[in-house]
Amino acid sequence: MDLAYPPEVEVFRSEIRRWLEANLPPGWFEPGFQLRGEERAAFSSRWVQQLAGGGWICASWPVEYGGRGLSVMENVVLAEEFARAGAPMRADFFGDTLVGPTILQWGTEEQKRKFLPRIQSGQISWCQGFSEPEAGSDLAALTTRAVLDGDEWVINGQKIWTTQAQHADYIFLLARTDPDAPKHKGISFLLVPMRQPGIEVRPIVQPDGTAEFNETFLTDARCPKENVVGGLHNGWAVAMTTLGFERGSSATTGHRRFEKELELIVAKARENGALADPVIRQRLAVAWSKVRIMEVNGLRGLSGLVDPDLSPDQRHGLAALAATNKMFWSEYHRDVMELAMDILGMVGQILTGGEDDESIPGVQRGRGRDDYPVSPLQSSFFFSRSETIWGGTAEIQRNIVGERVLGLPKEPRPQG
To answer: Do 150 and 269 share a domain, yes or no?
Structure first.
């Protein structure tokens, strides 16, 4: 790892810091500061407009599509400074980070002109329609069909775990457009309006009372013929780049939410005396070391990304690093949240949240009933149970590493 931040990038870092200090609410950087009730709601409603005014939404995009044309390193320090300040950075993760960059890479000029300005300005919100009940980790097993009818695609099928589908204006989804093609072929990447009679969204309520996940049913849903991104039957290649944006968007900041959360866990252990237990201390030390490993791996990945002289073998090594990172952090988080529940003890079995509890960065806060809300750690515990599944299950990630990185034989398939 040989990574240096150029002087001009550090100048840009100073610009970001000054903007944050000038635009975040007074007292934001003071210890213990917390927005409460109406103050929090008011901040959330105006922050997107402030971000847009500062040019920070989709800032890495080319200038002609509403961005600032940031370099890789400028984009990195932008993410770092927002993370350092604990300031929200994105208006719409699915639009800003997933489908927007996908359209930039694969879209026609007409698609770019139509969708990118509306994503950048926050005029339209998105959800992702990849997983299906029988096609999650094995995404190529999807059965949702799209058939061309004149100038429109007619889509039938079911998607699951479609986060924020109940609020989205569009869904970017994979559908089989050539049923006779091999498994990974004949799939297309479509941009489909959500607000139409052929789409039904059913929330999936989680143990903490949240329902950001949904089932989405498509029955003769329609989208324009020209809403295929990346060319007909090329959806698999397009989707792989989308997943790459999802996993590579926070190289040097991904560890920070775990770092903040671990500080809270240690504080609880100190508060209730669990820190006196040598086994608890050892488990906390292991957790701390794994957060530091995440930090170093992020820097390793970034150093490779900005190095134009890497050999093919070195780039292959970086691909292996990316494949193992998802496994590492998701299993870490599952284990550390079990540690958190052990530290809380029987108190952890009672929902002890308050209306003004500060959420853990990167974790959707759930409240269940208003009079019986989960605490931040309880909410994070529930969320951690899903993280070894979504975005590629740990079992499938191990197969990918074994087969594609280490060159091991494929896992035996059951005979039948």
So the answer is: no
Do residues 279 and 327 both lie within one domain? Answer: yes
C-alpha–C-alpha distance, residues 136 and 396, integer Å: 10
Q: What single letter denotes the amino acid at residue 140?
A: A
Is residue 117 domain-resident?
no
316 and 394 fall within a common domain:
yes
Q: What are phi and psi of 363, to 5 degrees?
A: -115, 125
Distance of alpha carbon 295 from alpha carbon 290, whole angstroms: 9
**What DSSP assignment string belongs to 54-76?**
HT-TTTTS-GGGTS----HHHHH
Between CA 88 and CA 364 the distance in angstroms is 13
Of 74, 80, 81, 246, catalytic = 246
Mean pLDDT of the chain: 84
The SS3 call for residue 159 is strand
pLDDT in tens, 229-280: 999 999 998 988 777 655 555 666 778 889 989 999 999 999 999 999 999 9
- Known catalytic membership, residue 64: no
The domain tally of the chain equals 3
pLDDT digits (tens, 9 = 90+) for 83-139: 888 888 776 788 888 899 999 999 999 999 999 988 887 788 999 999 998 887 678
Question: Where in the sequence is the domain holding 22, given as residue range(s)?
Answer: 7-89
**Last residue of some domain: 211, 236, 261?**
236
Torsion of CA 383, 388, 389, 391, to 10 degrees: 100
Predicted model pTM = 0.75
Report residue 189: phi and psi, to 5°: -100, 115
